[in-house]
Amino acid sequence: MAIQVGVSIDRSSPVPLYHQLAEQLSTAIASGMLQPGDPFENEIALAERLSLSRPTVRRAIQELVNQGLLLRRRGLGTTVANRKVHRRAELTSLYDDLKRDGGRPATTVLKHELVRDERVATALDLPADAELLSIIRLRLSDERPLAILHNWLPPVYNDITREALEGEGLYAVMRDRGVRPVVAHQTIGARTPTPAERRHLGLKPSEPVLTMTRVAFDAVGNAVEYGDHSYRAQDYSIEVMVDKR
Amino acid sequence: MAIQVGVSIDRSSPVPLYHQLAEQLSTAIASGMLQPGDPFENEIALAERLSLSRPTVRRAIQELVNQGLLLRRRGLGTTVANRKVHRRAELTSLYDDLKRDGGRPATTVLKHELVRDERVATALDLPADAELLSIIRLRLSDERPLAILHNWLPPVYNDITREALEGEGLYAVMRDRGVRPVVAHQTIGARTPTPAERRHLGLKPSEPVLTMTRVAFDAVGNAVEYGDHSYRAQDYSIEVMVDKR
DNA sequence: TACGAGAATATGTCAGTACAAAGTCTTGAC
DNA sequence: GTCAAGACTTTGTACTGACATATTCTCGTA
Questions:
Q1: Which of B85, B187, B220 sits opposite A237 (nearest CB)?
Q2: CATH classification of A17-85 is 1.10.10.10, yes or no?
Q3: Domain boundaries, chain B
Q4: Considering only residues 62-121 of protein chain B, which place a Cβ less than 7 A from any atom of strand D?
Q5: What is the pLDDT of residues A69-100, one digit of tens each?
Q6: Which of A102-116, A171-185, A193-207 has the lowest mean pLDDT?
Q7: CA–CA gap between residue B230 and residue B171 (Å, rounded)
Q8: Do A191 and B89 lie within an 8 Å CB cutoff?
């Protein structure tokens, strides 16, 4: 028996109907009202019940399928997917992650200067001699050092101050300026720490650092940030989701 | 001036029109015929030229936008995206990766037995006392040890043999049986190697291992594999792409 | 009783159309 | 000459309708 989810559509709202629907279905699933494996009301019935056209309903459902919340099989119907395959497609910063998890993040800016770096400039799709803002930060969580974050930003951001960076995360500062990274390439590795890393992170020589190099782009395809980070491996791991869909 | 891409549509083919179109546009972009930033023929004109309806053309273009190949801006038109933001949404195995990059992968099966493991079974959404196939392999590249791969498989795969696993990668073996992992959760970290890891990977005590724990699911949402891998950090790094779209 | 044909059900593909909204460009008034 | 209103282009949203196809279930026949 298919479960009917309570949905209210506001046709005068500027937000698209299919998105209103997707949102409400999504929260219904997240709230646990629908359990994994439960059959979902079919799109024809749903369209009729809500006085929407089938393509509109279809698009809303498709959005949830893309997020991994629903599973459609032709001839069979739509069902709620296993909770574990849900997609958390976020591009977050360490600062946000720590705050969300209840940690108390803090930042010390170790260095803040203008530099030229051909390797980084190339990765950012800028001329090799472009002047970049290079920032080295020490990130602490609950007063304990967790990571050294070395970032390079394109010339547009040269006016970002040390103070701004001590108050919040880099991504938050960029968000305040209307920049939203949406895609990033990351390379994750590990190595023994450098003397500077040992000093700042309080590591013994045998304790490794987890490293991540990242180039991030906004929706228009402009590179917005290059990062070279090293984390105390004992206290940090990176979670990613790989998705072939 | 918009560039006209040569496209031929076969209406008698069972493959959907929108997909035929998307494929051909995709290869045109990949071939370098269209450069990043180049304007793309608008969807109305394209529909008319190919005698397709606008929704069909639209869907094809949308597919490429989702892959990060194209960029649409309303009122402005569609353009080819920066090559760096292209999405390589794959879920590959180490074996395939090495082979693609020209390395000569080889595998030694160190252990191959049936076990019960509550922690793993739970992660795989199986009853806690389910009997799992536990496989420990040593993966070599060009005769040098690269990684220790410990995997657990659900009962359905209990008949996979040592021999099959020495000939090709785990994912290839599963593919032969019609199983295709499409989503995976991965947790990546680093630590000092255990004595066994040091011995097998030929590491000094100070040289770290890069670790990856993974749970993979197929399109239907069934867990198909749990993995606990450790890599020689000097020789290996993990590349991932994070995507908010 | 076993089994195959076909009905029922649900999603997948495709067409055609209409209007909305965002961004750019042109044109005309001051 | 400057600037704002409006035309134009292009993508975004929404509806209607039709047929294809995959899967399951039921029912009638051998």
A1: B187
A2: yes
A3: 17-85, 94-232
A4: 72-78
A5: 898 988 888 988 887 767 665 667 777 777 77
A6: A171-185
A7: 17
A8: no
CATH of domain A94-232: 3.40.1410.10
Residue of B185, B218, B232, B236 to mutate, interface with A, max A Cβ within 10 Å? B185
Q: Which residues of A touch B73 (CB under 8 A)?
A: 220
- The answer to whether the Cβ–Cβ distance between A187 and B239 falls below 8 Å is yes
d(CA A37, CA A44): 20
Tokens of A138: 């020490």
Same fold, B17-85 and B94-232: no
Smallest Cα–Cα separation from A116: which of A150, A154, A162?
A154
Full-model pTM: 0.85
ipTM: 0.83
Q: In whole angstroms, what is the distance from residue B157 CA to residue B224 CA?
A: 9
* CA–CA distance, A31 with A33 (Å, rounded to integer): 5
Torsional class of A75: left (φ above 0), alpha (ψ -120 to 50), beta (otherwise)? left
B242, A36: Cβ pair inside 8 Å?
A: no
**Residues of chain B (8-27) having a beta carbon less than 7 angstroms from strand C:** 16-19
Distance between the alpha carbon (CA) of B178 and the C1' atom of D21, Å: 22
